[in-house]
Design brief:
Chain lengths: ~240, ~240
Amino acid sequence: MELDVAFLPRAGVTDVAVVIDVLRMTTTATTLLQRGMEELVIVADTRAAIALAGETESLLFGERHGLPYPGFHGGNSPVEHAAVDYAGRSAILCTTNGSKAVEAVNSATHVLLGSIVNAKAVARLALELADERITLVCAGTDGDVSLDDVLGAGCIAVEVLANGGELYLTDAAKIALKMALSPDGVFATLAQSEHASTMRELGFAADVDYAARASTLNLVAKRVAREPSRFAPVAVDPL
Amino acid sequence: MELDVAFLPRAGVTDVAVVIDVLRMTTTATTLLQRGMEELVIVADTRAAIALAGETESLLFGERHGLPYPGFHGGNSPVEHAAVDYAGRSAILCTTNGSKAVEAVNSATHVLLGSIVNAKAVARLALELADERITLVCAGTDGDVSLDDVLGAGCIAVEVLANGGELYLTDAAKIALKMALSPDGVFATLAQSEHASTMRELGFAADVDYAARASTLNLVAKRVAREPSRFAPVAVDPL
């Protein structure tokens, strides 16, 4: 089994792709599932998201450049959603970078949403689904590599190593792994990211702390077969 | 001053670009200068390199996929060249990844060749030359991110931080920095790279050890103004 990391989204990913947007899309998506949400539709284009919301009973959540978008039912803050009951609901999630990353890995057989908060669960599900390769795909920020996403990939890589058998790690996977194993620790490393600074400036410091709590959630958003943008929850046994 | 790292070569780099191919092109280039070489011409295309060598008195060094190329005067092993006297000579250097990286950053105002062995010297020269931005450009391996080059970028970033004034580090620069500051140390981290494995398999284990010795050389190959492929040595005061 090969474990690879893409520092930025790229086309042509095969087998299992784990999309990672720690601050904040994939952290928020996992949180929404934990609060009972039955389905998530990930859409990159704002107009398409608004149109889709008008045709369905779905809630519409998201942001542009960190801030809630006018007309949306809610933003992209995990803490905002962490205590709300969404049992039986569905939501459309439209964000700046994470949604584009989901579109980029369309060719993968399985697409999962990974974050630090579900690192263990997503690692175990990825190992279960993969035939030969798991690619951890960092969303990045407008085409630039993001420390928060590479750190998230590293946290998931740690759990893949802990749960997997014989693994071949690419150099990119080794780099991500070293980020997660940095003596600074996950909290301080995440706080050093440019994205964390932006979050603090916008008043979302609590989201950064929340996003750094490793493996607190045991749900994974998994793409529904043959539906490129629909994701449903998979619960992973917390062992 | 901004310090950025490109994990793979990219076009559009401005101001100062430091091309890094630790195993082995930029390590070898620095070694050749230390042995008295007065000029290096970096050429990616093998046929063009051979044609150019036929027209000049230059030596022709390089490799394809790690091994010396037939008809070349020598290979791309720094250890092979480390005791030879090249006073007053010039050489054409034609390698798999490093030469292509030099071509990719053609738009930069200044292009330097950086490695672990001249980390301090290249950091200080880059700071001296830069107006607003230093980009450490990792050569990578056939389009994949290479641990050895990101580690090299980290080693140079450490020296930029030690010598520079107010610096803004991009997330990519912070990731590279963490590689150089890994508790494993530079030797062990370099040895973990895929490229180091290949070198050991091909019988070049000594090159890996040589390439990991930080700041042993105080020369930097600097692109000659308005000559995209010609590099001349600049000696940097060892302070």
